[in-house]
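Please, structure for the following, as tokens.
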Amino acid sequence: MAGEIQLNGTSFASESSGTITVNNGTIGSGVVFPAEHVIRTHFFSTIAQPSVTTDTFNSFSTPFKTTITNTKSSSSFLILVSMSIKTSSGSTASFYGRLQDNTNTATVGNEGTDGLFGVFFGSGSSDIIQINHNEMYTPASHAGGSLEIEVLVKQNLNYTTYLNTAGLSSSLTIMEIAG
């Protein structure tokens, strides 16, 4: 049986042969989505070419970071990192990465001895490496609002790490997941 739902004389939804069609509307800010539903995505991409020389975790000369805004205190966050890096080493070198929650002053994820992710440069300065890492993060304490995530890096023996050489780009994506 075909039917229609109206609010104040405006057709909101209709049904025909078992198919319900929502005609128009806006989802209000107070709507609660089911747990584990993506409710917001923030994408940051850069072609900037900053560098850093360090054997302890540190920021690039132009920090590789981004901020997702208007988050809820009960949310988790899926963080997607894609980086194009190069080393100053003339031989082999190891690169290590860390995700830092600058809003809540916390390190993201369960790190090993040398960080959360990494790669080995086999032939040194001629290598350009693409690194991808994904991490689900639930802050121990988050008041909601903004969440800033930064990628910190280090190399063994104090070599320089370069981001985005050879015209490449890197990106950082944060997806807010309903709690």
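DSSP finds no helices and 14 strands in the chain. The chain has one domain: 37-177.
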